[in-house]
Amino acid sequence: MSWLHASENCSFNDVDKLMKTLQLVVHVPTFLLGLLLNLLAIRGFSTFLKKRWPDYRATSIYMINLAVFDLLLVLSLPFKLVLSDVHLPSSASCTLVECLYFVSMYGSVFTICFISLDRFLAIQYPLLVSHLRSPRKTFGICCTIWVLVWTGSIPIYNFHGKVDKFTCFHNMSDGTWSARVFFPLEVFGFLLPMVIMCFCSSRSIHILLARRGHTQDWVQQRACIWTIAASLAVFVVSFLPVHLSFFLQFLVRNGFITECRAKQRISLFLQLSMCFSNVNCCLDVFCYYFVIKEFRTNIMAHRPSRVQLVRQDTMITRG
Predict the structure, then answer these.
(1) For residue 186, with 0-12 CB atoms within 10 Å meaning exposed, 13-18 middle and 19 or more buried, which class applies?
(2) I need a labelling partner for 266 at 20 to 30 A (CA). Which of 15, 22, 234, 319 fits?
């Protein structure tokens, strides 16, 4: 029996009405703030990229890539808000918006994961990574991420199957929630990146804290710790609830959960988590802030002081 027939006596109208209002309240400020903040982030990291400082170019490329994915999510929100409330005769108009939405989500997941891995390798193996961490290779990794997420979006074209009426991000076909589609998405799209990021972040923080009494650059390393912690917090807050809700909805659509009240609550949780995961495009600003602060701290630490400049001028004059 399909999920549609099993749910005929279980109404989700109250949930949908509540979410229609809540999405309007959340998405409008998210769109405005996300658009402004991510454009500023792209401009800021482009400045570091143009100055050709080798220590900051790789990270700047990753951060610009993350901001572009966030910008893509921001631009999809108005269409998501409008199309999710309209019955359409064809799935073609939905497909592009759904692709943009999920490509931006998983593009952010993979980019944050690679940023965490790159930072861990730079901390653990600084001499080895210095030869491998070139802007060209970083740009190649970012291009690979784009290829992966667009390739992974292929199942979106069959989200709605063959139905007469549907709305975007709703009424997805039974095949969409099949184990062969769901588990690869859940494992490779979220669980594996989360494990990698948690390991790399915890190890990086542990290494930096262990160096506290043996380094003169504790101010820079403390800034690095804040950057790592902010990235991990944003990742978990943004993506863990929505993927947990995906799993619960998978149980509903495959008949493991059949009680109406439970299905209504899971539907509400799913839509709530997706709604608030969109705020990730604004939360990433905390990562941008700490990275730029770290850059500036390092630049100031390595900039000659006025006393050193006076001594250099004196030596040149005497020479």
Answers:
(1) middle
(2) 234
